[in-house]
Amino acid sequence: MRLFGLIGFPLSHSFSKGFFADKFSKENITGCVYENFPIPAIEEFPGLWRQYEELEGLNVTIPYKQAVIPYLDELSDAAKAIGAVNCIRRKNGKLTGNNTDVTGFSRSLQPLLQPHHTKALILGTGGAAKAVKYSLAQMGIQYTEVSRSGPVPYEALTETIIREHTLIVNTTPLGMYPNEIDAPPIPYEFTGAQHLYYDLIYNPAETQFMKNGAAQGAAVKNGHEMLVLQAEASWEIWNA
Prior knowledge:
A 6-stranded mixed β-sheet has the order 2-1-3-5-6-4. It has a 5-stranded parallel β-sheet with strand order 8-7-9-10-11, with helices on both faces. It is built from 8 helices and 11 strands. It is an alpha/beta fold and 240 residues long. Pathway: Metabolic intermediate biosynthesis; chorismate biosynthesis; chorismate from D-erythrose 4-phosphate and phosphoenolpyruvate: step 4/7.
């Protein structure tokens, strides 16, 4: 049996376990199991691999995306640059950390890009923003970071800045269930049909940020496909 799983704490709701159970069933993948491993301290991480010799790969979620790094033997270029790991593979006794958020975001965004999407605003400066920055840099898209505390604060966003930056990516939790009426405080009235709004949030399916953009004629996208594609990227890594 091949064993895969998810570490984090707590793990009250896991997209990953449901996703892989569904995938194994639909694609008739036999001999594979995906389990949740809610470990209350990262110090329990090495024991997990000793306890389950059949364990081949793990996904990593809050709060261990950074804390797990010292326990790994190698990091992919993306994981190294971002400083966060969400996918681990064990091969030949070595643990390698990867960041599939980059792959998920890139593969989800690319089909939506138009030639004029050359500059982006990234709303938020947390861990998710780092993966977005890495992805955009790989695609040759210039970006400016916006947050309450800078580098560019929300109140500094002028009409000129908004019109120049036709891709706007929300990496903040503003608008996430149950606070669905919240939205990043940008001047939405300066956006139009040339803009693309991408929200990493997927619950609700249409955030207030997306509604505000759509009302101005912008194209909008939520983060559900990114979530699916980053999970698929983990499966690719575990089977490479």
